[in-house]
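Okay, any thoughts on this one?
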Amino acid sequence: MLFMNDFDRFKGHLKQQLEKPLPGLKAHELLMPEERKAMLKAKPDLTKARKAGVLLLFYPENNNTRIVFIERSKYDGVHSGQIAFPGGQYEKQDDDLLQTALRETEEEIGIKGETIKVIGKLSEIYIPPSNYIVLPVVGYINYKPIFIPEKSEVENVITFPIESFLKEDLIQHETIEIDSNLARNVPCFKVDGHIIWGATSMMLSELLNLLKNV
């Protein structure tokens, strides 16, 4: 896909795809553990789920389109140390979940919301362990950023060329230690030694489905 090396063409293509019907669950299921599929079939009560927004952020560098992830800091919680998109919980001062995603991105990695051009949204996704319904927002900046990670929440900022995720047979399976007493074999993306799984990988799967529609 030659447009991946042309940032303007990449932005135009992605924006166009985001305006079409989204693949949603069909794309999510490619990276969904069996336990999660069973849970969805049971139709969980989402009325008490909390709301959150995350940002899939792109920028150009050396003729490559790069996508931004964070590695969460280690803490006593279900998402400790995971690779994720910047974002977090909706707060009362937020007008909507788009603003939540931009505010949290600025807080976590130092990219000011007013510099980010939002071009669309992906499908909402429910995260059972933390009881969140998350809206993935898609946006870009036209420059290579200087990241300022919030160390209490972000261990590292990690970026990849988007082409890294467009190779064949990229989806693999890995045994993940959920906590000291539980490990599961889950579908995931493995890129440069990093394992991306769970809700983040499902959002990424939907994004890649759109990018491959040329």
